[in-house]
Amino acid sequence: MRILSIDSSLGTQVAVVDTAETAGLPGTCSVQVLSQAEQADTRRHAESLGQMLSEALSAPGVADRPLDAVVAATGPAPFTGLRAGLVTARVVGRTRGIPVHGVSSLDAVARLALDELGARQGEKDPVVLVATDARRREVYAALFRANGPDDVTHLTEISVCPPAQVAECIAVQTPEQGSGAVTIDAVAGSGAALYPELVGTASCHEVLAPVSGDALAQVRIALARLGRGEELGTQPLYLRHADVQMPAARKRVR
């Protein structure tokens, strides 16, 4: 299957990949990158996406075969950048007559962090706190555990709150297990890089994968969920209203 993946939750990432089921490992897929582009500017998504998409789709080995699907990040992330990526994904899907699937940006960050933890000796069924920058001195935060080699499971809902309140939000949603609360093995995400105090919530005081999304990880997650028959909607996860609001109508003076 040939898939276009778009992530605009922090900077902008575009990738075209070929996927195939891994021999001897039912339910897992290998992902071969055919073309990839990335830019780090968090405020130039609309200006960058068109050119990046054109380059990715016209690269050698890509233009010779049609796309089968599009996967796009659904956030949560700042309103304008997230909307630019999702609109682009939907336009490509509609013009080419192919399905568009959505994956949360936090899920992709969690998958990368769990990959890194799983590659170490002695890390068994680790738990990762993902905290990404929500601006306004807040973060989007949730706890995750692996669900097989390519997917993740939410242990909490995604919250948007100041960094100082993350531990409290997690404690409310996670019942104590045995002698204490759930142990967090590492923290990941751009919010953790911005707010070092979040590292104190992890038992090893370690930050992994300081990003807010990943175009390749979200393909792995999408394929795992589609393989289980799940529907992957593309509704954006804003979690709060946009910074810019339309002015209210003026009241008439009688």
From TrEMBL:
GO cellular component terms listed in the entry, alphabetical order: cytosol
Organism superkingdom: Bacteria
A UniProt-annotated Pfam family: TsaD
Organism of this sequence: Actinomyces naeslundii
Chain ranges of the Gcp-like domain: 42-148
GO-annotated biological processes: tRNA threonylcarbamoyladenosine modification
Name of the protein in its database record: tRNA (Adenosine(37)-N6)-threonylcarbamoyltransferase complex dimerization subunit type 1 TsaB
EC number(s) given by UniProt: 2.3.1.234
Keywords attached to this entry: Acyltransferase, Transferase
Molecular function in Gene Ontology: tRNA N(6)-L-threonylcarbamoyladenine synthase activity
Enzyme class: transferase
